[in-house]
Amino acid sequence: MYTEKEEHHVLKPKSLHSFLAAFAFATGVSTGALAADTITIGVAGAHSGDLASYGLPTVKATELVVNDINEQGGINGMQLKMLAEDDVCKPEIATNTATKLVSENVNVVIGHICSGATKAALPIYRDANIIVMSPSATNPDLTQSGDYPNFYRTIASDDLQARTMVDFVTDKLHAQKVAIIHDKGDYGKGLAEFAKTFIEQAGKIEVVLFEGVTPGAVDYSSVVQKIKRSKADAVIYGGYHPEASKIVSQMRKKRLETAFLGPDGVKDDTFIKVAGANAEGVYATGPADVSQNPLTKKYRQKFIDQEGTDPGAFFNNAVAAALALTSAIEKAGSTDSEAIANALHNETAETPFGAIKFDASGEPIGIGFIMYQVKNGEYVQVQ
Amino acid sequence: MLEVRNLDTYYGNIQALHDISLHVEEGEIITLIGANGAGKSTTLMSISGIVPPRKGEILFQGDPIHELPPNHIVSLGICQVPEGRHIFPDLTVAENLDMGAFLRNDKKQIARDLDYLYDLFPILRKRRHQPGGNLSGGEQQMLAISRALMAHPKLLLLDEPSMGLAPLVTRQIFDIIKKINQEQNTTIFLVEQNANLALKVADRGYVLENGHITLHDRADALLANKDVQKAYLGM
Amino acid sequence: MVPGIVAFTGKFFPHSFTLLRNVADIMDFFEPDYFIELLFSGLTKGAIYALIALGYTMVYGIIGLINFAHGEIYMIGAFTALIVSTVLSIYGFPLLAIFILAAVAAVVWASAYGYTIERLAYRPLRNAPRLSPLISAIGMSIFLQNYVLLAQTSDFQPFPALVPDFAFMEPVAHIVGSTDLVILVVSVIVMILLTVMIKFTRTGKAMRATAQDKKMALLVGINVDNVISITFITGSALAAIGGLLIASHVGQINFYIGFIAGIKAFTAAVLGGIGSIPGAVLGSFILGLTESFATGYVSSDYEDVFAFSLLVLILIFRPAGLLGKSTIEKV
Hints:
The complex is a heterotrimer. Chain A is an alpha/beta fold. Chain A is built from 13 helices and 15 strands. Chain A has 2 domains: 217 residues, Response regulator (Rossmann fold, 3-Layer(aba) Sandwich); 122 residues, Response regulator (Rossmann fold, 3-Layer(aba) Sandwich), CATH 3.40.50. In chain A, the strands form 3 sheets. A 7-stranded mixed β-sheet of chain A has the order 7-6-8-9-10-14-15, sandwiched between helices. Chain A has a 5-stranded parallel β-sheet with strand order 2-1-3-4-5, sandwiched between helices. Chain A has a 3-stranded antiparallel β-sheet with strand order 11-12-13. By secondary structure, chain B is of the alpha/beta class. The two termini of chain B are 34 Å apart. Chain C has a domain of 223 residues. Chain C contains 13 helices and 2 strands. Chain C has a two-stranded antiparallel sheet. The chains are: A alpha/beta, B alpha/beta, C mainly alpha. Chains in contact: A-C, B-C. Chains A and C meet through helix 8, helix 9 and helix 10 of A and helix 3, strand 1, helix 10, helix 11 and helix 12 of C.
């Protein structure tokens, strides 16, 4: 559901301040982060322009975490510094941003915000052996290509929902044949294609139908008949709830009781309201509800106290990135990239999403999608 | 019966009729002759209410009708057979005739009138289930006149009934016009380019030039008029 | 001798056996059950399109205007039915009564809208250049969409199933549902009534006469303005019935449903020959069946591609549509 766009920015006074501080520090000490008594965290992303609303919450989140840690005496006696750089979400600017942060000898980077900018910046960090953790770049390639071992993220990748659905269909529903239907849109079709690829890669079960439907059509019964003929055990749907409720309702009216799975576009109360009794038993993936997590509450409150508004997009993800990185540095007892990576993979960190760590490709374990099912007119988590 | 006083009619900003005055007495046949574009059809359309006049009055049996809608004028007993006949092409002959009686409710009398017309034009009876659009020009003219007669008009406005017809058919149509006038006592207002023919059946005639009435006389007098002979009778 | 004969037949009818096998293959490919299911899907779709397409074609036939606001009339009919059925179900009316009363309310309300739109947006432009009423129609469509958007939000509203699952339909429910049956039956009844009205009643004849020759219609004493109003009312009533049935079929409505259904129905009307009533019905069923079979045997990805390719093909060979008449400019 997260879309990414490219964008632009000017440094905030606060960021400029820390920038100057870091600059003074960096000129004073040559290299060797271990020897330093300050740890610098670079924050890169869109801090100005149309997409600043995606990037600025990350700056604030990092600042809040850094201040917290510094107040408690820093990490292993070292104070934290934050250095924010704007990439405007543009790949061509992101390379400059990365070069600049590298030349300032940052120890780790939180960012970038947009997938395109992130991808452009990553080789520069990789060559400098700096760990990068994005709170918002969801492009699956960033982790799956294997090109960027220094990359981590605290957000589920675009294909994770598809992965979650495919795993559920295979392992929990024990389906043999799957029909994949989508609404031809970017979101729905992209998801459907990921699901298809995963099923085919695994080779355990079969995709018996892969079709796009026209959103808003008055009738989907011919597609329903097609699903029936395909003898699928489960339908994976990529798209939003209006079409999903029409398809499910027409399936049930045609006495087709095949399991139906939708993405977070379907995990919407309107779906249940509209499909009524036919919604019963429908599965949908969605993010876990973290609003009651103590860390979520704590940083949300801090943000509101300082800014007077609700934190914006990716704030929790950014807090999680800052916490995961600082916790890894602490546990590694060093700012050496390999030591940090080791800690990220093996030690859990407490975040607004709960305890998380990272798999070998850099994807977060513990942030993602869980399966819900409609029971008695409500989405409940599938155990 | 019909009295037209000082009529001015416009199409948009273009004035088609200038100060037209004429009158039609009950039971007579009058004719309006003139060249193409003189305003003959416009005069009829103004009387029927399709192109209402901007100035002047039209009185029918003493009452003003120039502000009434066309359907109301028809209901008073003024029917028009327009130029080009305007048969409803996809309606059958019988349905076309039925449309003529649209404003009537006396079913029995309608059936009698239909019989009368079918006797008058036997070809129409033969073709009553065919679409009007399939008829020949002469048959369509017969149908158009019959359709108008189905309304039981007091005043029948005929626009160019001879247009596009073979001479033999034209003569037949004019015979019928005379017959209707005599047998049904229907007053007839005839517009014709074929002035010779028109003046022969008519009692009186008007000559229209460029939207002005230039002459008015008994039909036989107009036939004898040198100017009329020169301009309209091709002599 | 016998081998000779075999050789002989084989020589002269080399395709006879393959032909037989091909027939079996074709039967196999079409799968009779599946074919029948798709057939019913297509017929239901066609019936839905027809109810809306008739309004387009009737208005076009009478005044030569493409009434772009027609889809919105359908949408308003659906909303009226939703509001009435919601209220009535609160008072515990039986389902059949709700269905009938909702239908009556939808028809009356949508007709009132149709009548008003004509009076306000089209009649003042009767003698204006052709483009003016067209623009006015588009404006009316946008206005009504936004008006309902403001009143009802853009969210989909659940629409109650006004057609219960009939017990007698249970054995064939996997092929044709109760709602589909009701849609088919109601559309057929409505179309028969419409045909009877057009063909035999005084009003119907006046409509046909007006459509064929407006000036002559005036000259035989038809009140053409009334006929036009009645045409809008009839078309709106049909669309409202369509709105009720389709909303009940798909179970949800919002302000935008009229646009999508309207485009398809308009396509069907053009396909059949806009202005022709049998043409609209024929075009609708052809469109519905094409979409259904294209989805069933090829892919729903190409549902619209097939539908519009068909339209283009038909318009190439019959520019006026299947049953349309090429219009001759009258002088």
